[in-house]
C-alpha cells in the first residue's frame, strides 16, 4: 500500500517571484552547489523553460556507505536518484505541476503533484507525494523512511528558495 504526504512551503514572496526563481537556471545551479555539500554528485541534467512551463531533471548520487542500513540492504551499490520537476505556465491564481524521483532498477517510486498559489502573506508551494516500495516485509518501513527524508528535503529546499529570492531580487 502506498503512503502519502502533503507538505506546504510558505513564502513571504508573491507567486511571481517564487515562480521566477524556480524557472531560473541560476537558481537550480546554486541549489546543486548546496546539494554537493551532502551529495558530491548533484547535477542539473535537463533544464527547459518554454510556453509549456518549467521542465527540469536533476541527477544525484548517494554513496552506498551513506545509506541507512535498511536502504543499503535493498540497494546494493551507490544510489543514483533521477528527479523530475515540472511546473506548468505561470498562473497568478494557481500554477500546477508534477514531480517524481526514481532509482534505476529501484524497488519503488516517488511521485506527486505540486501547486503554487497566493496567500494573504505571500504564497504557498504545496507538494502532495505518494511513495510506493515493492519489497515485501520492509516496504512500509522504507516508505516511511522516504517520507521523513522528503519532509527534511522539502524544508531545506524551502529555506534555500526563500534565501535565494531575498539575495537575488
TrEMBL record:
Top-level taxon of the source organism: Bacteria
Name under which the protein is recorded: DUF2505 domain-containing protein
Protein source organism: Williamsia maris
Amino acid at each position: 500500500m502506498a503512503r502519502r504526504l502533503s507538505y506546504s512551503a510558505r513564502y513571504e514572496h508573491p507567486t511571481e517571484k517564487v515562480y521566477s526563481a524556480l524557472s531560473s537556471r541560476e537558481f537550480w545551479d546554486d541549489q546543486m552547489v548546496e546539494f554537493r555539500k551532502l551529495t558530491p554528485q548533484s547535477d542539473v541534467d535537463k533544464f527547459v523553460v518554454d510556453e509549456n512551463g518549467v521542465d527540469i531533471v536533476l541527477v544525484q548520487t548517494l554513496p552506498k556507505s551513506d545509506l541507512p542500513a535498511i536502504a543499503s540492504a535493498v540497494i546494493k551499490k551507490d544510489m543514483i536518484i533521477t528527479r523530475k520537476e515540472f511546473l506548468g505556465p505561470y498562473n497568478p491564481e494557481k500554477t500546477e505541476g508534477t514531480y517524481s524521483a526514481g532509482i534505476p532498477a529501484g524497488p519503488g517510486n516517488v511521485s506527486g503533484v505540486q501547486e503554487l498559489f497566493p496567500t494573504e502573506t505571500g504564497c504557498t508551494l504545496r507538494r502532495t507525494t505518494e511513495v510506493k516500495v515493492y519489497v515485501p516485509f520492509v516496504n512500509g518501513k522504507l516508505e516511511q523512511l522516504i517520507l521523513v527524508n522528503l519532509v527534511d528535503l522539502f524544508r531545506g529546499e524551502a529555506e534555500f528558495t526563500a534565501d535565494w529570492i531575498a539575495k537575488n531580487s
